[in-house]
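SEQUENCE WITH STRUCTURE:
===
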Amino acid sequence: MESCKLNFGKNHQKAVLVVLLTVSIISVSSFSFASAAGGISLTASAEGRPSQIDISGETTRTSDITITVTAPNRNVVSIAQITPTADGTYAAKINTGGLLWSQDGFYKITAQQGTGGIFKVALEVEVKGGKVITPYAFISSLEDGRVAALEPERGLTLFADAIEGSTTITANGHTTSFNDITLTVKAPNGNVVSIAQILPDINGNFEKKITTGGPLWKQDGFYKITAQQGEGGQFKSTVEVEIIDGRVIPEFGAIAALILAVAIISIIAVSARSRLSIMPKY
């Protein structure tokens, strides 16, 4: 039996070399792409400090980060260069106010390393009268190089506290915006009986005492108290308080329900003991 021998000519050798070279290029390219994966994140927070923006974030690069802030008219109002720490985090503080921040509107904050790409992210915060209206914003390109923004839960809550028979209502609540709050009270017939403008404190809390009584409060029924910021429904909340003869009639709340429950249980217990005491003895 004659043995079979493989004979590669010059053309075959060239073909093999081309295939090997192609595989090598693909491998190197894949490795380079994997090595280049990463990104940067940016957080802007003004919670509790409406005249200061706290900047922070993470990056997978070690080069300096340039933080730029542009006003609504596109003028640069702040620029800084930050070196990330060994674990890839960075932080900075930006003070608002002054002539450069006198324009109301949305200010753009950009964090960039190198020429950009996935290492360039930007977000916007609203500033009014030198105070930051947007308490929190976040954007990131760290996950597979895709840019993702996160909007925190925002809104306004309103409560009305009063003692039965009182002529004072305490309207209070919390908001995630630093805008002025318009507090309106309407009678059952829809007429406005009280209106006031208040500012939330640095933590977003607010409180206003409303005095009932007088000709405007002579109609018995439910009065609507509304707190609103701007035009959006997200920052608008309404509660109702019943007024009789100019005095507060609170809702049948949890405390009243608890007192009623205790009273019913006491009556049942006393009745049971009474039945036991009158049962004949044998």
Q: What stands out?
A: The two ends are 122 Å apart (CA to CA).
